[in-house]
Amino acid sequence: MAKGLLMYFDIETGYYPGLHHGLAYLMGSVSKNNDVQLFHVYKEEHLIELKDLIENNSWDFVGISFTTNQRKYLWKLFETTDVSNQLLIGGGVHPTLDKENTFREFPEFDAICIGEGETSFVELCKRLDNGKDISETPSFIFKKVDDVGKTSFKVNPVAPLMHIDDLPFPDYTGFDYKRIISDSGGVFAMMLGRGCPYQCKYCASSHLAKEYPNPENWVRFPTIERSIELIKKNLELYPDTRSIIFADDVFTVRKDWIKEFCEVYKKEIGLPFECNARVETIRDDVCEALKSAGVTSIDFGVESGSEWLRNNIVSRKHKNERIIKCFNTLEKHSIKGFSYNIVGMPFETPAMMKETYELNKHHLKSARYGRAFYYYPYPGTGMHDLSLKNKLLRPGIEDLSGYLEAPTVLEIHASHKEIRKWFKKINLLFAVRLICDRLYLPRSISEVIVSITQFFWKPLAGIVEPDKSNVIMKNINKKLKLIVKKSGKPGHSVYDSHDTRKIEIDGLEKNKEISKERNLTNNPLQM
Length: 527
What we know:
The protein is α/β, with parallel strands linked by helices. It contains 20 helices and 13 strands.
C-alpha cells in the first residue's frame, strides 16, 4: 500500500475555494488500495501546516496540483520546506502545458504528471508497492541527473483517455465539502462530462486534448445511467443539497444526450440546477428540455462584445447577433443567463472594451448576472504564444494569483487605467442587476437603477469591486458576498422554490441499450 500526499493549491484566485473535480476522481481511484491524503491549500497560512506535514512524515510520493497563477505560493512553500527526501510530483494544467519548463521553474520536482492522472497514479502506486521501476510509469516525465550533474528527462507516453464509465466515482471527502457546499448556499458543484470541442485561444482545453493518443475521445459524457448514479452518490454524501451546478465545460454540446438526460433527471433527481453552455448550442428544443428538468440559469462565455477581437484573437467565430439570440431564447423560456467577460486581452482597445459593456448593458438584459475578469495568459495556449511573440505581457504577472487583481498586458493598446475602468463598470452593472433581482424589482425599474448607478461608477465600484490594495474594503466585500451566498437562494438565479430535497439511492432501471449509448457518449460534438 503506497502512502501519498496530494495537494491542491487554490489561494486567492478570486473564486471562493471550491471542489476540484479532477482531483476528486483521482482520489476515488488511488485511495481505494492506498493510503493517500488530500490537502486543499486555500489560504497562505496552510503553507506552515504543509511544512510540518511534509518534513515530519515519510511519504512514498508528494503530489502538487496547480495552475499558472498559483506558482508564487509553491515558491514560498519550497523556500521554507525541505522536500529533498520526498518523491515530489507536479501535476495539473500548468505542468501539463509547460512540461520541461516546469522543472526549470521548480527544480525541486522529480517528476510531473501529464493530463488526467487516474490510471497513471494507480500504476505508480503499484510500482512503488512492488519495487518496480517507477520511471516507466505512463503519463509521467521524470527528471534524471547524471554523475556530472547534467539533467535529462525520461518522457513516457501519455495514457489514453478513459471512458468516464470506466473510472471509479469521484471522492470529495478529502475536501471540506460540507463547509464548501454550505457556504455556497447548499449548491453542490459536480462534473459529469469532460472536454470541450471548441478552440478558444485563451483556454487550455483545446491544447490539453492534443496530449493524448486518442484526442478524438477528448469530449466525453458518461452514460445516462452512470450520470444519475453519480449524482445520487454525491447527494448521499450531502443530503441537504438545495441545487446543483454541472461544471462540465459545455453541458449542452450533445443535444441527443442532454434531452435524454433531462428526461431521466427530472424523474430521478428533480433538484434545480445550473450549467455551462456555448451560445451556438442553445435552441428552443434544448431550452425546453433543460427547463422541464429544472434548469434555472445557464453560464456563457461572452468574453468580448468586439466581433473583430473574438474572431481574430480569441477564436470564437460567431457574431453578436448569435449571442443576443441565445440570451433572448433563454428569456423566452424563463431561464436566467450568466455572462462571463474578459478585459485587457492582447490588442484590445478601450473602444473594444466599451463594446463588451454595451453588449451586456443594452442587448443582453436577460443576462441578470455576470462577471468581468482580467485576461490571464496560460503557457501553451495560443493567446499566450501571441502575447510573447508581440511582447505584450507586462513584468511581474507571476505575482498575480487570480483573474480579479490587475491587467497582465503592457500599456500598448490600452492603459491600465482604461482596462480597470471597464472591468469595474461591467462588474458594477451585474452587481446592481443581481441586487435588483434579489429584491424582486421589475425589469424596467432594475434597468433604470443600473443606468443611474453607472453615473456614479467610481465610488460604487470601490464597494462592489475594491482594489486589492484596499484591504479593509476587500475583507468587507468578501464577508458580504459570503453572507449573500449563504443566506440567499442558491446559485445565480432567484428560484421559485428552494426546498431541501433528500435523495435516496434506489435501484436504477437498467438501460437495455447501454453498450450503444456508451459508444455514443464518446463521440464529441454529436448534435
